[in-house]
Each structure stands twice: as structure tokens, then as C-alpha cells.
Amino acid sequence: MTARKIIIDTDPGQDDAVAILLALASPKEIEVLGITAVAGNVPLPLTQKNARIVCEIAGKQDVPVFAGCDAPLKRPLVTAEHVHGKTGLDGPELTDPTMPLADGHAVDFIIDTLRNHPAGTVTLCPLGPLTNIATAFQKAPDIVEKVQEIVLMGGAYFEVGNITPAAEFNIYVDPEAAEIVFKSGRPIVVMPLDVTHKVLVTKPRCDAFRALDTKVGVFVAEMTEFFERFDVAKYGSAGAPLHDPCVTAYLIRPDLFTGRHINVEIETQSELTLGMTVADWWGVTDRPANATFIGDVDADGFFDMLTERLALL
Ligand SMILES: [Ca+2]
């Protein structure tokens, strides 16, 4: 099996950081062509910096990190410092990265990479608002059909919303971008809150990260300890949900996940339900399926694999 070529589009974010570390720890399955930062959890100057911090923690300074869009297509940016802290990576002590930002705009990197690879060989892994991906699709429509698959974290059906009662954060921040991606016609795998709320960093799982006794293990333990306080207070859950790592875990171990191939549409009009992922889980419409919407995960298998991989960095 050759490693799958991916671009990680991200707004780190503690859970983004873990998703990136998992990918970088898994070169047999995943080749990270580049990381593209987008505004989301925190503004772009922080997300692009955080992406570089994560590469350096992993000892992978050779992975290019590009800065992308600093605001959604049509709306002012909404951020989530109340969840992720002021830096986006609150928890561990952070030092400024020494690796430079790559030259050029993230959107152009996405376009050039897809144009320079054979069709069906590059997978996009969005972990934040879909602004960079949608902008690339609008600027260079020829690249859309070259995308192998889009595996993204976003949306919710049974869990409904986390930033509003109806919408999940990534989709809510840029619903117009999400609509472009969901209507792209490319194969899409969605990791909604329905599944990400099942991968919780409980105390024993966090202790297992720390027990690796490596820079990466301690970093992940400190991030998830900070990140959990919000969800524990809000949901009374047992620990931090690892939303974005579901994306990279799926690339390595798809057998851990189950879902349904269904129609998913994005609400872009209603003030009340803006950014809702209207997922036809029960098949009550005849709208064509456009996404595999994941609903369940083997959480113990997920954490065993994640901890094993993090130990390799
Ligand atoms: Ca994210």
C-alpha cells in the first residue's frame, strides 16, 4: 500500500494539532503534501503560527505550512477562543516556531498541487471552516474533478449544534463555503459531532499520552487537559472530544468507523438555523446521496491506535 497524499486544511485548535500529529506519525499510510491554514478557531495569524508549532513539536519542519484566507467568503469571522483559549493552543507552554511560513497563498498551493498530480491521487482533509477549499474550487474549477476524496470534520445531525443550537462551528463560520464543497460532486466523508463526541479523552486516556514521556505525549496531554474543561462543563462529558483527529484516523483505520452514504445539504439562508447540516440520515427525501456521514466509532480502538502512533514521534 502506498501512502495516501493529502493536504491538511486547518485552524489549530488543540484537536487540529492532534490530527496533524497523528498524520505526521503515520508516513506509511499518509503523505502530508502540505498544511494550509485558515481563519477559524482563532484568527489566521495564530492558526498559521500554530500549524508551524505543531510541525516543530513533531520534528517535521520540512512540511510546508501556507497561510490562507483570513475571513469567510461572505461573512465576518466568528472565532472560538471560549473553547480553545486565546492562542488556540492553550494548555502547554508555547514557544514561537523557527520554521518559516511557506511562500505563496494556501489557495494557490491547493490549486497547484491538484494540477500537478494525476487525477484522483490527492485527498483534501479540511479540519476548519471550508473557506480555503471553496475559494480554490471557485478560482480553479478544473481542480475539482481531480480531487480523490474530501474527508472533513464538520456538521452534526443527532448532536445538532455546538456554536448555535442548530449548527456545528466549522460549517457555521462559512456556510457558503461549505455549500460549495458539499455540492462539488466529489466523494465526501464527514466526521460530524455525532461521532466526534464519542472520542473523549478520559483521564486514563490522557494519562496514557503523558506516560509516553515524550515531548509530543506531554504536549498532547497538556492540550487535551485544557481543551476538556469546556466540554466537561457544557455537556458533563468525560473529557475533551477529539473532533479533528477523526479525519486522520479514518485515513489510517477506516474500519474503526461506520456511517451512511446520504444526502447532506447546508442551510445558508435561515438566521435561526444558519450552517445546519441537513443530513437525510433516515432517507426521507429522494435527494441524491453526496456524502458518507459517519455516525459511530470504535473509541477504544481509536485511542489505542492514536497513542501507539504518537509514541513514534
Ligand atoms: Ca479545527
From TrEMBL:
PROSITE patterns: IUNH
Keywords: Glycosidase, Hydrolase
Domain Inosine/uridine-preferring nucleoside hydrolase intervals: 6-304
InterPro entries (UniProt xref): I/U_nuclsd_hydro_CS (IPR015910), Inosine/uridine_hydrolase_dom (IPR001910), IUNH (IPR023186), Ribo_hydro-like (IPR036452)
Domain of life: Bacteria
MF terms (GO), sorted A to Z: hydrolase activity
Name of this protein: Nucleoside hydrolase
